[in-house]
Amino acid sequence: MHERLSFFVKRDSALHPLNPLTKIVLALGIILVSIFSPWYWTSHVLLLVVIVPLVFIGKVATEYFTSALRLILPAAGFIFFMQAFFQPIGQTVIFNFWFLDITQESLLFAFRIATRITVMISAFTLFLLTTHPSELMSDLTRRGLPPQFAYVIISTLQILPQMQAKAQTIIAAQRSRGLDTESTFFKRIGSVVPLVSPLVFGSLVEVEERAIAIEARGFTSKKAKTSLYEISDRSSDKFIRWGLVIFVIISIVLKLWLS
Amino acid sequence: MFEKIKKDFTTMTWVLIPVAIAINIAIGQIVVLLKLPVFLDSIGTVLVGIVAGPWAGALTGALSNTIWGLFNPDSLPWWPVAFFIGLVAGLCANAGLFKNWWKVILSGFLIALTAAIVSTPISVYLYGGITASGSSFITAYLLQTGQGVLSAVLSTGFLVEPVDKITTAMLAFVIVQGLSKRLVARFPRPENAEVESGNNTTQIIIALVVVVVVVALGFVVRNMLAG
Amino acid sequence: MAFINLNNVTYKYPLTKTPALQNINLQVNEGEFVAIVGPNGAGKSTLCYTLAGFVPHFFKGEISGTVEVAGIDSSKSTLDKWVLNVGLAFQNPFNQISGAKYTVFEEIAFGLENTGVPRDEMKPRVEEAMKLTDISNLADRSPYSLSGGQQQRVALTSILVMRPKLLVLDEPTSQMDPIGTREVFGVIRKMAEGGMTVVMVEHKMEWIANFADRVVALKDGQVLMEGKPNEVLTSELLVENGFGVSRYTSTAREAKKQGLWKKEKLPVTLDEAVEGFKK
After folding, report:
1. Domains, chain C, ranges and CATH?
2. Which of B32, B91, C159, C278 is most deeply buried (CB count within 10 A of its CB)?
3. A226, C110: Cβ pair inside 8 Å?
């Protein structure tokens, strides 16, 4: 598990210095076009012609393909099989198992859905690999997102790994005290409470002091907030963003028109 | 209206939300490890709904799925479901449905209905009804018997969700009752967690018994379906 | 008029029956360094929270009497304005990490960002504060990766950088070694000499005697006695009321019973003890 739930890798690429909002719009644009475009091969083309080249431009190919193997392929693969087996569409049966038929149509449908999922996750991964969370949050705050959101998101990203580490410790401790997480149903139910309560109550009790600490540092100050870092937003950023918005609109219009 | 919502977002609420998200995810993972027939990945969301109201609950849910999406991308599209779980939990709490154990069952049931309804369009549109969740076996079975996608997905939801959400609501209730009154009083809506009658130890014990019974029921149903 | 003016303050937390503070009267001058001592449950932390505005604004509950800092009445102010004048750092360093930042440098700038300090001013102020507490070398580290003592320094720096007029510290050195403690007390002393008023809860009696101007002893929410450090910290009254005293004081007290301590006054610090035993 990652030390801090941040995928960001620092590189000197053409993608990194883009404004964070541009990179979000890019990811969302790709995702929306792949959902709305009526053309069967849209997602496949997006993956090969847009995402893969961008991964190389962003100099994050190693990281992208590692996470593709670890996260994306299993998710997409699972969905492919579920769809291929369970979609009750089409007549051209290729393969039959129990009450389930695999048809040519269900295979095609499965391929499309699985690729769409791959595109969605890939676009998101690309964005995360090239954008530092605090840069993203500073930029969004500057654009009017309430600063408390920045606090919540970054704070969650930092608490989560600690919580998971504690969960691992608790599981190990309970096991060593003879609490079997792999035994009968009632034993497993019984093991939930001692597993979880120290974790939950411990972290909830801390909430009060942590609230005091950030209040003491002006968290609720009504003055206009400033930011330590300046985040660039060039005219090329705006150009890319509007271009993407137009693409999304075109694919939605096409979708509505053709259906 | 806006001012009223703002009142629920105190610093305590802002600090609680990340903790609640971490609780969602940590408990969700432990439950997977224990191979229980429930998800229990929204206890934190319901908890926020109880002590800080519907909008704080909704925000916790939506952010929880978005952030968990970094690890498990499949959870990302379901954020509207989590949003409504938090919202309905908060509305139930404001209506006094978290004040004793049997009302919590009702809350859990209402949350389950919401979850089933909100997840249906996502499941149908994005996945054609067959998602990565284990319960999709039921949907697939219903589809093969000739049911339409919409009704198959919805029926699956109505079948699966109550066990999970009643357990979730019960456990969130137990946690809130287990916290010191002093701490609960710091949150924007401590009155939502005040036990109506009897003392809270009795309530906690009954609630835990209900949890065991409901999960056992879910277990039996799952084994029947699998067998 | 005094910089801090507590007038007959009595306070009860919500859902409690006994008051945590009872009829507290306390005046502190600008630039004074006052230490608060007392056994557990004496109301030390509550007093800190009162000075820092969290009682009653954050904790609610019932308060009577008046709390004035820098001429402003706490009951007529709000917490978000109050914290601009009064800084608070407390014992548990882990809970003082904001969680909103990835590096120590950003963590220290957090308070400045919140209170709208311009960017050009922010960087030099953070650098200066880090130099003061000697943590410049930690600038790029994650606040979560630090030791307890280092985290306490970061917590203190995060408050100092905001340049409060009153600094309220609740056992800020509990996880530091003696060298770290001495350094931090030195920094706080320097701040007081620069005009910052300091109120600090502390168990380490030797350090109080070395650095503080005045000591206030609390018990059961009331002021038991106050005065010069070596008067208060060697008083029989403290021993009778179950206060901890410095090991030098208790050693010399035993020695005095045996006739080995000749001086009238008992020591608090090592230096005083060494000097006293020499005679």
Report:
1. 4-245 (3.40.50.300)
2. C159
3. no
